[in-house]
Amino acid sequence: MRLGISWLTNALVLLVVTVLLTGVTSSGAGALLLAAAVFGVLNTVLKPLLRLITLPLAVLTLGIAWFFVSMLMLVITKWIVSGFYITGFWTLVAATLIVWVVNLALDFTPGPWQVTGSRRRRYRRRAA
User: Fold this and answer.
1) Is the pTM of this model over 0.85?
2) Mean pLDDT score, 73-91
3) 85, 26 Cβ separation under 8 angstroms
4) Which tens digit of pLDDT belongs to each residue from 50-69?
5) Spatial CA neighbour of 119 closest among 1, 36, 2
6) Is the pLDDT of residue 126 over 60?
7) Looking at residue 44, what is its pLDDT?
8) How far, in Å, CA of 56 to CA of 53, rounded?
9) For residue 35, which of 68, 11, 69, 17 has the smallest C-alpha distance?
10) What is the DSSP string of 39-54?
11) To the nearest 5 percent, what fractions of the chain are helix, strand and coil?
């Protein structure tokens, strides 16, 4: 259940990015869903490892280094999924910002996508 919700949330975020930015395209719904799955797996498996490795750099740059880690997750998704395209560096920057803003909005919106850690405890308290 949680995996499905996470996958659909990633699909929604990537759909928002493709609608807002002309430089981000998808060859169809299947490619977008596959990109969402790949993006979710990368964010679950690779991103925490990269954030740990780049922690000293993130401290020196006041967290800006982690923005580039997030950009890398989109780049790797683009490389893996043949029907998901991001053209241009500034489009990639804008896409990363949009993903961040949408995820921030979802973090503050109660719902089933808040399933881990302190977010889960906050959701359960509000729901009770």
Assistant:
1) no
2) 95
3) yes
4) 889 999 998 999 988 889 99
5) 2
6) no
7) 83
8) 8
9) 11
10) HHHHHHHHHHHHHHHT
11) 75, 5, 20
Q: Tell the burial category of 76 from Cβ atoms under 10 Å away from its Cβ (0-12, 13-18, 19+).
A: middle
Q: What is the pLDDT of residues 2-51, one digit of tens each?
A: 677 778 888 889 999 999 999 999 999 999 999 999 998 888 888 889 88
- Do the beta carbons of residue 71 and residue 17 sit within 8 Å? no
For Cα atoms 108, 96, 61, give the angle at the middle one, nearest 5 degrees: 90
Selection from 78, 81, 125, 116 nearest residue 99 by Cα: 78
**Mean pLDDT, all residues of the chain:** 85
Structural domain count of the chain: 1
Instruction: State how far the alpha carbon of 125 is from the alpha carbons of 6, 12, 22, 114, 120, in Å.
Output: 21, 26, 41, 12, 9
Domain of 52, in residue numbers: 2-127
Phi then psi for residue 32, to 5 deg, are: -65, -40
